[in-house]
Amino acid sequence: MISPVMPTYARAPFEFERGEGSWLIATDGSKFLDFGAGIAVNALGHAHPKLVAALEAQARRVWHVSNLYEIPEQRRLAERLVDVTFADTVFFTNSGAEAMECCIKMARKYWAHKGEPTRNRIITFKDAFHGRTLATISAAGQEKLVDGFGPLLPGFDQVEVDDIEAVKAAIGPETAAIMIEPIQGEGGIRVVPGTYLRALRQLCDEHGLLLILDEIQCGMGRTGALFAHENAGIAPDIMGVAKGIGGGFPLGACLATEEAAAGMVAGTHGSTYGGNPLACAVGNAVVEEIADPEFLDEVKRKAGLLRQRLGALADEHGDIIAEIRGEGLMLGLRLNEGFVNGDFVAAARANGLLTVPAGANVVRILPPLNISDDDLAEGVSRLDTTCRAVKAQSGEAA
């Protein structure tokens, strides 16, 4: 018999009743150090007082009015994002997939608005992840995402992420844009080099294409910059943002330049819930906290500390850990052949540490951005214990 909750998730058998900073407490009272942050969502940890206060205050005023009316909290958040990014305008959504849908639609509408509707193809990259809608799985093209959901939406040309010549070859008279994650999250914490991002920006400029960045997972301070593309010294034309921007409250956004958004006039796109007062009240509190240069400097410092300690861990357990990947507090441990990331995640959980699996046999390390030095050290200690347990299990199995 099917469960009341549709069984589309392979859930771990734990229920959490509350969170405190970097820790989650299960219904049986056991505590877990959260090195997954809800897949990079809980950027400020659990029950952050500023976010709680913002949500409580807004909840006593107005929850929802729809986008038929002006929403002051939404306007303030848009102004904040425009002030601290490349963007001139923002469309708010409830999720990352919706934000990327808006990016895709905007790129197509841009060319239709210019009188070239046949320029509707977007170059994307293998092992990408942009969401679970038909358009976003079509953009990624991964078999595990698209199996059984055909026919896919046409208009996407996938190339290898490290092959600039393949990108050049894929550009044709119907090409509208190039879309890429500066760091592939689900794809295995694969960092796209700054030189490559700059080369893509140059190609877009040369051919009049739009550059779309998916910063759903790597944005909002995760790399130590407010957005990962800043590390490469470039700016996109359109960008999808979600996860950390709501700190745990469902919120996403599509940011764009005035030029890129020229075709997005009244009636071309919409959302009933997108940017509602509750979401934007929390989003304002999140952005105010994370966009502070001193906060970002602390993220960089903590990232250096964590990277150093993970390096020592990898030296100690080189038979398990093949490589440390990532930037800032978006890191991954690629495991050697013979070890499975899902098994490692389960073993870490047994040691009271929450991590997240990813492609390429990677274990994601995504702690809250405001995690304490002591909790970082405790997390690495539990990773060490996990490595020893995994090796012991491997020896028993042999």
How large a portion of the residues is in β-strands, by DSSP E?
15-25%
Radius of gyration: 21 Å
Number of helices: 12
| Secondary-structure element order, N to C | EEEHHHEHEHHEHEEEHEEEHHEEHEEEH
Domain module count: 2
Helix content: 25-40%
Measure the end-to-end span: 38 Å
Strand order of the largest sheet: 4-12-11-10-7-5-6
Question: Regions with pLDDT < 50 over 5+ consecutive residues?
Answer: none
Overall outline:
globular
Q: What is the CATH C-level name of the largest domain? A: Alpha Beta
Topology, number of strands = 17
CATH architecture of the largest domain: 3-Layer(aba) Sandwich
The structure class reads alpha/beta
Integer average pLDDT: 96
Largest beta-sheet details: 7 strands, mixed
CATH superfamily of the largest domain: Type I PLP-dependent aspartate aminotransferase-like (Major domain)
Q: In the CATH scheme, what's the topology name of the largest domain?
A: Aspartate Aminotransferase, domain 2
